[in-house]
Amino acid sequence: MTRPHDFGFDETAQILKGTARRLLQDHCAPEALHRLVALDAGPARASECVWDEALWRRMLDLGWTAVAVPERLGGFGMGLVAIAGLVEELGRAAAPSPLIVTLCATYVALACGPAADELLRRIAAGLSVSLAGTDRRGSWEAEHTEVTVDANGRLSGTAWFVQDAGKVGALIVKARSAQGLGLYLVEVDATGVTIVQDAILDLTRDQAHVVLREVVPAQVLASPGDGARALVAAEPAILTIIAADMVGAGEWQLQTTAEYARTRVQFERPIGFFQAVKHPLVDMMVQLDAARSLVYDAACAFDHEPESAEVCARMAKAAASDAAAYCSDRSVQLHGGIGFTWECFVQLWFKRQRHNEVLYGDAAHQRAVLADRLLGRIGATA
Amino acid sequence: MTRPHDFGFDETAQILKGTARRLLQDHCAPEALHRLVALDAGPARASECVWDEALWRRMLDLGWTAVAVPERLGGFGMGLVAIAGLVEELGRAAAPSPLIVTLCATYVALACGPAADELLRRIAAGLSVSLAGTDRRGSWEAEHTEVTVDANGRLSGTAWFVQDAGKVGALIVKARSAQGLGLYLVEVDATGVTIVQDAILDLTRDQAHVVLREVVPAQVLASPGDGARALVAAEPAILTIIAADMVGAGEWQLQTTAEYARTRVQFERPIGFFQAVKHPLVDMMVQLDAARSLVYDAACAFDHEPESAEVCARMAKAAASDAAAYCSDRSVQLHGGIGFTWECFVQLWFKRQRHNEVLYGDAAHQRAVLADRLLGRIGATA
Amino acid sequence: MNQSSESSEQAAFRAHCKAWLASGLPPRPGFRLPLGPLEIATREQLEYLCAWQKAAHAAGLVGCDYPREYGGGGLRDCQWIANHELKAAGAPFFPNIVGLGMAAPTIFHHGTEAQKRRLLPPLFAADEIWCQGFSEPGAGSDLANVQALAERDGEGWRVNGHKVWTTLAHFATWMILLCRTDRARKHDGMTYFVAPIRDGVGRGVTIRPLVKMTGELGFNEVFFEDYPIADDLRLDEVGRGWAVAMTTLLHERGAGSLVTPSAGGGLGDDSETTLGAAGLVELAKRSYRHGKPASDDPRLRDAIVKMLIRERAFAQNERRAAVPALVDHPLRLPLQHKLTLSELLQDTARLACEIEGMAATLHQTDPNAPAGGRWPHAYMNSFGFTIAAGSNEVQRNILGERVLRLAKSK
Amino acid sequence: MNQSSESSEQAAFRAHCKAWLASGLPPRPGFRLPLGPLEIATREQLEYLCAWQKAAHAAGLVGCDYPREYGGGGLRDCQWIANHELKAAGAPFFPNIVGLGMAAPTIFHHGTEAQKRRLLPPLFAADEIWCQGFSEPGAGSDLANVQALAERDGEGWRVNGHKVWTTLAHFATWMILLCRTDRARKHDGMTYFVAPIRDGVGRGVTIRPLVKMTGELGFNEVFFEDYPIADDLRLDEVGRGWAVAMTTLLHERGAGSLVTPSAGGGLGDDSETTLGAAGLVELAKRSYRHGKPASDDPRLRDAIVKMLIRERAFAQNERRAAVPALVDHPLRLPLQHKLTLSELLQDTARLACEIEGMAATLHQTDPNAPAGGRWPHAYMNSFGFTIAAGSNEVQRNILGERVLRLAKSK
């Protein structure tokens, strides 16, 4: 396949991104977001699922769950490059919604073949779905699920760190049996499903662990033994999506902190005059630009050159995680005292970024896997 | 034993350090040093051994090879804390001499017991000695020597990365036999010894690999099987001495670069006005002070609490290596164009520091060993 | 541990500390202790800690180097010994942190005899808690921009203004208060007061808690509206406020001549209640990466050892600062104290979050949060320390200008 | 590789490049090639590289986007395609780096028709080598402080002054020369000339090589004493020198509208002649740590992969810079070019030295020096890049001010 020099970021992608920017500016501005998710500073807030369902209905009206679904299944069949543009805007707005998990789940479903056609149709029609299969140690590796399938095809065990579980209608559950890993669609209201909300720091999402007790899945998406392959195929898209979220959120952190540096006066100067403020802002920009270019590189590789998609996606996730960490850290420090308060908006992005950094493996994890790919496994040289 | 709160840095130590400062200011000022070692910029210079033998005789007159030798063997019996102060001054002046290698060798001899009494007497009287036993990969670990002893006690093989080999009168050679590691005194002019000067970057020392062909040692300092223990006992002192050299050299880099920042004018300001210059200078200072405190901590531990000497020494070497790397890097960058030239003195310290950083294991090596001590070996927890 | 260079007074005092601490530590409370004075949230925490400071003061471990007539111990160069023994014994911290670290040395150097006799004894005994009224919304790092106005009103003064970041204000009896008394002048237009703010609540003083980004309390805003203050509560002369404030900050930054009484922060169980690098080792042994203990990951091992080295270097800097022959400039090490400590705490907490991985997403109220969820909170709270008392950017300016004699950046 | 968004002109040009490069590369020379234009040391190296540039120009790969009447290819937006194919083919670099990257776009934008016709064709063909006369001992990062004085002398000018850091001056025919023509004005008191300095040697021009900290040559000092220069060698108007110099620097920093012709630097064997991160992988496989290959050390693996990521990000930034819909500010990516590339090269070389361990002490003349001793030299030479063309400190100011609209620091 060919890799377009412009990443394949075409007019449709531009329109999608532009629409997202405007919708979120209108309905998820920082003031509104803070009022929505940070009204209560008390610790009880941590395990609540707070979001704007009216905004979600607008997103559904715009068909955003359908963007990645093929046209033959009722979707728009857009490439990951266009999706990355959309997700950048969700990150920039720090918008709480089940869209990102649903997009991730869509790529898993796409990798499952015809067995997931029905699910993809439902997603295109507005079903929100999250992925469930991380173990208690936070590992997303295929073999690390704690959910098992019994001889009757019923699922039992706990899936940890399920993102936005409080907002979705269904889950794609990773489960092990003697034949290997399978993937199963589970409706959240099915018998035997208990969703236990975690108390988390990030105010712009929710997280839960999902306890399954002999749950009959609504559908088998990948039979035992076929699940790992589908997950591996979808992983570059998932990593790219999370990285795009971080790049968008980082841009908000950069612009908001730069604006503060242009207006806050100390020692009779806007603080951006001081190189101790100016240069870290430039370094935020440099790191973000590197990560952003790698996000589009990875999305383009996924769309056009699958054999290099994994390496590119891990590079993007690693660079974006590091950029997010640096931008979060400096956005608070450079805001000085005010940046350290609950009422200042920077805390919302800080916490969203910290959460995204570790999702599906932090920067060091991605680099460790990349080292295996690019330097050979340890012991291979000796 | 007890650890004095003031590190045991007493009046004698102060006098030794002060004398060294003055002597080196008078006889090894930067201009004189540059004239001595950097007269020739051509590549042939790299494998020459250039030093000021008259200055060396002054050092001998002051008894500096005798400082660590016990009084009963004709020395001054001073502690490592006092030696560290002396070595700091050698580093500050970037003085070329065989003193540092001789001090390191002295601690190996001290760990050999009565067999090395004669050698220590000779050192106190002015013999300069270097250590020989690093392998071609640069490992100083006891088991990695490439020199072997035959049944007749003759030494053969190559010792790599021998420091200041062109200046010393004798070598302490690590050699393996079936019975284990032994330590041997070899005179540099003994039959079968060939000293091949390496071409190196540092202009303030020389380095060689020493080829031994059936060399009859002048003396057995540690019998086969006893050598490793002596090396382990001496290693904290060796690491502390190299770290002290780096701390002294780093202080020169800091003060010289700060002086440049006070006087060089750009944009109508002394460049030290700009935080992009000021803050790195402060960070140089912060890193140097941490390393310096750890050097005296390590020296004091060696003198008073041998059980913690290794950990303290490795911490000092790690911190000093990192500080040296940072100071070297920034001393060139902050000097701008002029710092990048042969005629500017900073290159001399830059290269000395780069050399010291890797001697006896760089910062990461020290931390890897420290991790084994402080976190347990890998696999111990599982 | 016998110290070779100690005077006999010091040796005797050390022995006294050891003996008293062997039985003088308070029992563990039935509730969770805060991680530091800035995190004191409940009155029961405060009372427990005040009782402990009072007992330690009664035993002579608090304010040892101050004269006896001011509630001190009348000793010389002994507070560091008490601190050392307190830390070794795993004693809890002293709650009157602003009082001990900032108000006491300032009152001692600038107060009248009457002020010293009135204010210092209850400060040492934690009978009266102190808070600081320096920062304002427009005067953070740029303290010389203080706008809170004290105007002459008969014999005394009347204050109008708005202070922020006043730790412990809701528990405090007294505030050290920096005001402008002359709008036409900058540095020499300020005056320094000690304000009985608890008595002022409802009579011109309003205290409003500021919520930190963690959702916790700890700081306050304090509003003054025509708040009356007597002239005998002025410290030093009118217009000398900046100089007095510099004494305060010198001590806050660890560079003062009087050692601040301090203790560990724990009750013996380091890994549970402190935020030191030792906690990282424990955490790494309990956390997993790539299916193996995080403590087996060579990259994390390297990072943890770096922190252990920085922590030891910090302690050894304190040790070396007391050895004149190994100090090049009297302010060089003391002015690094706050800078290096705050960045060490921040980097340690950040690394802990990395070790925790996905579990670092959990709030401290989540039962599965590792180490009680304290590390992500510690990371966020660490910004209070890197920003407060002159941001670290300003600290680097001060070090560059005062120690390296570089041109002033402002 | 067919590129979906290319015009037919571009596609045809790409095919042409591929076809020509399949046979047009020069044979390996019998001597060692320098690592970059700044390291050209001997006349035989220069002649080999000039012959190569001349051949590539004749084939249409150099100056493709310039008009034909100036020796260009008359194409649109094709130079990047040539550069891409040159790099993919492992072609050697072009030696006339100052000419192609700085002089050509400046002459194109500010020169007269006659100047363009006279100067550009031999520049592209490497028949005339160019050097830069901007920096002075007192005007490094602060270029506006240029003191070299050009005074009216009849019809022409007479120049007195001292330029430093003039790469390639000893091989150059021409110099771009920034002079002060009005002492009373700063930015608008400068004028820009193109000076035939080879002809001037012995007639007012003295060239003295500057020795780098590596002991190598590469830079020069140039002294002007009553050096005469004709008025038709002035570029743009008197007093407009600063504006013209900004065009030069914009292109040097990679932010100009004209893409600079460039190639790889090697002849197919990456690990031997380039300084990229791929060289780190090879080096790590051949080096040892703790008795094992350095490529098995997880900490070094992590560090090497970081460099591979930064290197790819740099290339992807170049790619994204050409996609307007993914660019927020026109100068944002171009102005990062020199900053990120120079720090990437520096950090890569520093890491290589760490991988080498003790062997990094060896000079390139030592037969045991790994990779021919190029990494420690590359580390030292990298400071030329982080300091030159406006130190990276100044680059960060420019980015902060022009892209983030922060207050000017100077």
Automatic annotation (TrEMBL), chains A, B:
Its cofactor is FAD. InterPro entries: Acyl-CoA_Oxase/DH_mid-dom_sf (IPR046373), AcylCo_DH-like_C (IPR036250), AcylCo_DH/oxidase_C (IPR009075), AcylCoA_DH/ox_N (IPR013786), AcylCoA_DH/ox_N_sf (IPR037069), AcylCoA_DH/oxidase_NM_dom_sf (IPR009100). Residues 11-105 form the Acyl-CoA dehydrogenase/oxidase N-terminal domain. Coiled coil: none annotated. Residues 242-375 form the Acyl-CoA dehydrogenase/oxidase C-terminal domain. Keywords: FAD, Flavoprotein, Oxidoreductase. Belongs to the acyl-CoA dehydrogenase family. This is Acyl-CoA/acyl-ACP dehydrogenase. It comes from Nannocystis bainbridge.
UniProtKB/TrEMBL annotation, chains C, D:
Gene3D superfamilies: Acyl-CoA dehydrogenase/oxidase, N-terminal domain, Butyryl-CoA Dehydrogenase, subunit A, domain 2, Butyryl-CoA Dehydrogenase, subunit A, domain 3. Its cofactor is FAD. It comes from the Bacteria. Pfam families: Acyl-CoA_dh_1, Acyl-CoA_dh_M, Acyl-CoA_dh_N. The keyword Oxidoreductase applies. Residues 131-226 form the Acyl-CoA oxidase/dehydrogenase middle domain. Residues 239-404 form the Acyl-CoA dehydrogenase/oxidase C-terminal domain. Keywords: FAD, Flavoprotein, Oxidoreductase. The keyword Flavoprotein applies. SUPFAM superfamilies: Acyl-CoA dehydrogenase C-terminal domain-like (SSF47203), Acyl-CoA dehydrogenase NM domain-like (SSF56645). Residues 47-125 form the Acyl-CoA dehydrogenase/oxidase N-terminal domain. Belongs to the acyl-CoA dehydrogenase family. This is Acyl-CoA dehydrogenase family protein. It comes from Nannocystis bainbridge.
